[in-house]
Amino acid sequence: MSQEPIVRLSNVTKRIGSKTIIDRLTLDIPSGQVFGFLGPNGSGKTTTIRMMVGLMSISEGDIFIQGISVRNDFEKAIAYVGAIVENPEMYKFLTGYQNLLHFARMSPGVPKERIQEVIKLVGLENRIHDKVKTYSLGMRQRLGVAQAILHRPRLLILDEPTNGLDPQGIRELRDYLRVLTQEEGTTVFVSSHLLSEMELMCDTVAVIQSGKLINVQDLKASQVGDQASETMFEVDNPAQALDLLGSGRAEGDHFIVLLNREQIAEVNSRLVAAGLKVYGIQVVTRSLEDQFLEMTGGGTIG
Amino acid sequence: MGNFMGLIHNEHMKIYRRLRTWIMLGLVVALPIVLGIVVAVNTPSSKPISAWDIASELNIIYFLVSIFSVIIAADMVSSEFTWGTVKLLLIRPWSRAKILLSKFIVVLLFAISMSVVFVVTNLATSFSLFPNLPIEVVFGGTESGQLLLQVFYKFVDLLVITIFSFMLSTVFRTSGLAIGLSMFLLVAGNILSAIFSPVKYDWAKYLLFNNMDLSKYEYMKSAVTNITTTTGMSLGFSVTILLVYVVAFLVISWVVFMKRDVAA
Question: Which residues pair with A68 in a beta bridge?
């Protein structure tokens, strides 16, 4: 899984006029993951993605996809990529099938059977021969996913894919992405400002603010393993519990202490043995949202 | 990397899967027929008109082909931007230069096909409704040669205007401006020529509209106010100027299209 990264952004800078939109961004995207790209509105997510897919020029630095420079060898590098940049805009006067045919013709080696396969995957069999202007937003999104994966890209780039989707649509999208990473080995690079969404979808998240990379965090690693985490006990007398254990802190009617899994059970039995009433035990995980707000400092749009 | 014919096929699909294209085609076919019938009905059998004369008169309708070519060219690039589909079009394994080339070729093919359809309809209408009588040949050569030359001069103007429209479409990404300015040049060209006449101002002979309508060199050959003697302009000169303009339009289109940051 951790071979060479599928995408390398090296000192990528974008300047428009005198304004620096992206400032020396360096980032490796490992293969086979769902990689999140998180940042508040205006932080430069979309600009970075536009540079990755060649819609915008790169002022300085370079982006390598499978080791191929987007700047110098765009046609080769982009062949590995499927993307939806913001909303998937299709030719509305064509049918869904004609739209797919259009994009299939632009990539080498996409037979008709592959088009059928993709239509089935996104569940558009019944409406594929209707004009796109009759489609709902959710169906357009599905068609968008279909055109992006037609040529079996190694890398799928999705910019704000859940914008305007209803909860069911978001759920479906998440399921496709899982299927793609697990069954086809596609790496997915997805940008969003919706934290909870990213938490559910991604293996790793990179946080960007004002065009600068702030942090890269492995979400899966923080969930497994037997590290000590803050555990909250709801008890009738927190002060007494504090005396008993000699560590931790009392907060209202809660008592919080740093424990690992085994220690939680142990502490619980000691509390009970000491005659304290334990109403509840909970591991306090700081949500991505807390961490994000902490990192971006509440975030002024820069 | 893929097949360039695929790109041509795509651009054709985007033109011919639209109803308006077929309306255009319908008008180009219907108008010569309707006009031909009207003239035929009102012509007394005692004074027959030559089919060649009718075909020559019906050539005025070729103006319609110019308008439609301008419209298609004006939409070619700008519509991808207004639809937002340009974001999906440019992230394929094709350089922007090749994508623009496919669009340009399809515009040319459209203009040529429409012209052929028009000429065929025009001749078929004229010769099925009117007798094949010899006419006075102004340009020299045969009747058919003269007619084709007439169409050819108009076709040259059409190409220049269409490429102008294609450039505006690429640069400004709005079809309205491209159609408006191109049609203005096409319609007001004669008026502008009268105001900025190369007879009055020497520099005016380098202006685009003064070099269009190459047929003037044929018609005015024998005239006293010969253009070549009064202004020093000749057929070769005008052709060169037109070529310079066309190349400039194309260079601007390509440079702008390849450099542009797509943010829409």
Answer: A65
